[in-house]
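User: Can you model how cytidine-5'-triphosphate sits in this protein?
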Amino acid sequence: EAGRLADRLNVSLYVVGGCVRDLLLGIENLDLDLVVEGDGILFARKLAEAKQARVKAHDRFGTAIVLLPDGFKLDVATARTEYYEYPTALPTVEQSSIKKDLYRRDFTINALAVRLNAKGFGEVLDFYGGQRDLHDKIVRVLHGLSFVEDPTRVFRAIRFAVRFGFRLGRDTEALIEGAVKMNLFHRLSGHRLLEELKLLLAERDAMQAVKRMADFGLLRFIHPKLGWSSRLQAGLRAAEQALGWYRLLYLDREIAGWLVYVVALLEVLPERAVADVLKRFPFTQAEAAVIRAARLNGQAIVRQLSRRPPPKPAQVYRLLCGLSDETLLGLMARSKAEAIMRAISAFLTTYQHVKPLLTGADLKAMGLKPGPQFKQILDRLLDARLNGEVHTELDERDLAAR
Ligand code: CTP
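Assistant: Here's the modeled complex, given as structure tokens:
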């Protein structure tokens, strides 16, 4: 359909990038990146019209996002070569334009395109050996300046290698080593570095991703004191286990898994260094709160939870309520003790959902005077219910009246 629109507008249309890569690998990918040889924004507008979709255009970059009513998202870009200089009808020129666009990209496996126009529909454009590298399982840059142009590509290289179980091309590896030696990453803003780090740590095998970063000496760009150690490895492994456990239980709940790994990474750093990291990277307040809570209160909470005799459910509840799931998993990963596992698990699955049967309205109906003591009474009722000291509503009424 988009192809037919492109034909009518007399432009060439291609689907490019990660989507083609994943298609050839047989992996699902719902992000569609389109490149137009011609006016990409005009094409996006016409497509949106036909589809009753919304468009957000960036005129300066010749790009647009088309938001289809069913939630599907298309990125449309203009092939970056002067279009009006050439008669677009000439296929050779069309090709050279998409070819140049693809040459600007990061890796051969991401520099493949599939043609969508009626003429040549479905044809794979592979100027740089992307299909061969997909077959040989290699992440390879297109040219020697790739990492200089964009140092975040170093992290992308590791991300794709870890995700697909690919290795890095030998030249590509050497270029990464060069980029590390030249300290190209100090030029990156905290924002961009954090974005890349998040994506890396969101990979299924985040631990392997960190290991690869360490192999290249990249951890020191998070903090100079951060390096690979058996302690770090154990912490990451524990984070992985805690997350695996959580995902088995809470399939319907979203968790920022990457943040649990960040907690594990920072665990091995001294206090001052953690403060540096919090300053350098623009974590949201909520994210910073998770890092601080796991770090500062972590030890005290773990100590309380592993006390003998073990704390009662209400005490566990009071210790853990208000902490995010990420913090809880951070605590779990930090201690690994059976008692902690059990307490956090009981809190997540049960305690946090418990409520007293009586409400404030009930207390009022009982003739009690509203005020700050209401909260105290309700807290007392909740504690009693958690500890199994009250069972019926009558029990609660008795307790409330006391
Ligand atoms: N790209 C690039 N250099 C970058 C970022 C992106 O060349 N620093 C190009 C690549 O061709 C990539 C495409 O832009 O395929 C889209 O980028 P992005 O959506 O970030 O990557 P995907 O390949 O789609 O990866 P993912 O599956 O992780 O979304």
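A couple of observations from the model: Residues 17-18, 31, 33, 105-106, 110, 150, 152-153, 156 surround cytidine-5'-triphosphate (CB under 6 Å). Residues 82-94 have pLDDT under 50 and may be disordered.
User: Helpful, thanks.
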